[in-house]
Amino acid sequence: MKTVKGGKTWERTNVTNLLRNGQSGNYYACVKVNGKEKWWALKTKVVSVAKLKLRGGNA
């Protein structure tokens, strides 16, 4: 688990670029675009739905 500024904790998953916020339980996508990190809230607490959204599904 990684703690960052603001006290949020991030948990790794077994899926590349998919992280879970330890406090809220929500999933986020974190990818590097042009050398910068981009974060997207996937607005779900369910890992299977987060995987679909990360891969561009309509879930």
Summarize the structure in short.
The chain is mostly beta strands.
Strand content: 35-45%
Number of helices: 1
Overall pLDDT:
88
Order of helices and strands: EEEEEH
What does this 3D model show about the protein?
- By secondary structure, the chain is mainly β.
- The protein has one domain (2-54).
- Helices cover 14% and strands 39% of the residues.
- The chain has one helix and five strands.
- The chain has one helix at residues 47-54, and strands spanning 2-3, 9-12, 18-21, 27-33, 36-41.
- Strands 1-2-3-4-5 form a five-stranded antiparallel β-sheet, with helices on one face.
- A hairpin with a 5-residue loop joins strand 3 (18-21) and strand 4 (27-33).
- The longest helix is centred in the C-terminal third of the chain and has 8 residues, at 47-54.
- The chain is globular and about 30 Å long.
- The model has no long low-confidence stretch (mean pLDDT 88).
Task: Throw out a few tags for this protein.
59 residues; five-stranded antiparallel beta sheet; 5 strands; mainly beta
Topology:
Layout lengths: L1 E2 L5 E4 L5 E4 L5 E7 L2 E6 L5 H8 L5
